[in-house]
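ugh finaly. both done.
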Amino acid sequence: MSAKKVLVAEDSSVIQNLTKKILQFQNYEITAVKNGKEVMKELDKGSFDIILMDINMPQMDGMTCAQEIRKLSDPVKAAIPIVAITGNAKNYSDDDFKSAGINAYLQKPLDFDRLVEVVKEYTA
């Protein structure tokens, strides 16, 4: 069985590296980018099983990026589960996340056990 592919979009290299290490340890294949524009570029090149996306990123934030992904013409890519990672979830309601096309969200500081659980749940 091939490894599940995770796209991590996070502009903090500390969180990006931690997330990478933890998920690689769980045998996920990780691609990491710094902003929403890079997410769209990666999706042009290939497909992923899940996207972990910081909400506050330069160039294109997570909410905008999620909406862009949901509009993709490729139905498989348009339906990739998106998990938002945010330090200010209280600024958004569940409906905000839902209407942006986000499947779930995780609060910062990240609970890495929960992160692994959520990734497993959406890539099972």
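ok and the 2nd:
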Amino acid sequence: MLHVEFTTPLGARVTVDIADSRQLDATLRQYGRLGWTSGDVPTGGYQFPYDNFPDFDWSLIGARKWKSPEGEDVIFHRGHSYKIRVLEAVDSRKMKLPPAIKISRGAKNTDPAHVREKGEGEIEYVTLAIFRGGKRRENLAVPAQEHAEAAD
């Protein structure tokens, strides 16, 4: 039996038992839709394949896509709003990187030092996720049935 610990948006810790490991993704989706999260965001953010971005299921990490009052698509996670930034490929003598999509926000003085990343100038960022390279993983996509219902 698996035990998954979630944290609710109000900070309550709830343990959910899963009898069959094949139900893990469904359980993460079920509680993630409520904004419940499990675990901490890794330093540098979650790493996902680039091709998963268009239909990534944000409920897997307790997040949701949201349209800001300015009409911009953002990702809402644990009370923070993250911008979607498109990064061009880098091809220089020192570095080669494929294009990426980075989900990040400006750092706050309450953010621990280990999650802050230096940006240009004195700006610091906190990254929730980055989509770069890799091979598409179907288990990270919104399930086909839900995707069809959302299109209706």
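summary for the 2nd one i guess: The chain has two domains: 1-39, 41-151.
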